[in-house]
# Entry
Amino acid sequence: IRSNSTVGSAGPLTGLRILDFTRVLAGPICTQILGDMGAEVIKLERLGEGDDTRAFAPPYLPKNDAGDPSHISAYFAGCNRNKSSMTLNYTTPEGQAVVRRLLGKCDVLVENFKTGTLDKYGLSYSDLKKEFPRLVYCSITGFGHTGPYKSRPGYDALIQAMGGIMSITGEPEGQPMKVGLSVCDLVAGMHGVMGILAALRHVSVSGQGQHVDISMLDVTTALLANQGMNYLATREVQPRLGNMHPNIVPYQVMPGSDGFFILSVGNDPTFGRFIEVAQQADPSAVDLLKDERFSSSVARVMNRQVVTDRCNELTRLRPVAWWMEQLEKAKVGCSRILNLKEVFEDPHVQAREMLLDIDIASLDRPATVIASPFKFSETKVSYRKPPPELGEHTNEVLSKLGGFTDAEIAELKAKGAV
# Structure
């Protein structure tokens, strides 16, 4: 493993055990983060099918150096390491009994079913809290467990639309645009981690568990941050600005003579340094510092189009590489716009060990996945298990954790419970 960890190192959550009912992305990314930090994660999957993302392919992980595809989807591999896979039919009484037996040895249950799904099988928080008073039960859903939309299914693109993200993303004259990542899923999963850790702190001081109710729409509304506050302060709907920033100018994509780059001018001193660089391309650029439309951050926002047009005229005078070299010397925020190949080849990304080579038994070569971004000085993240095969650990979990005998496991299988 090439990463900021050694195999089996003790992460900060070592000793914590998670019963993981999640699938697709928001829930699995939550439990993978917990697993990377040392928690033991038991992933419960549907018999015969497993997590939906096992079939979200192509692409598949390469099986060998020739690049032949394996049976493991890249999507599934990206959010399911550090987990044991157990197949379970929770709709049967026997399956529900297995869940209760396992919960006696677990600290946290995480689920991301549509609101009310587990209620039908006696596995809601209200059904379990008396029997397991210390249980932290985290639900990650589209709309939460209260409110008029609580029974609706939640999907990332849907939440981006309902949460306002698409209305402020895209070119001014173009279509509303979704973000290129499943950002609502990902941030909901991260909030799930934060909520679980906060609830565990409460357990440690009070002995009392609780329900952590994470709504993707709530999280997306909170994510509006300065854009949402701009509306609340003015009650004016923000138009789409393309690659521009609503409160800072210039802080956007700029044209060079041979391509594009990002320029991030966050304050007046930085703008002054940008002009010093621009003078090398056009000596008249210094005159902008005397123009009241350019002289302060507020004035530049008020005169956005004039400032943008003039700055674009300046940046078109030199190639992107020239701007990168000169702006970096002047300590002005800037970057080329990298594709994913360039991101993973970037020397800083590699120095920060953001790629992980992990051995998977069914592959002839290690699989490269994205590593954890957490860098702890003492309790390093821990990569212990590759993404599991469907049901790979069913017998092990039932016998070692649940205390089931071989005969009992055989009976559960005969009844279609596991």
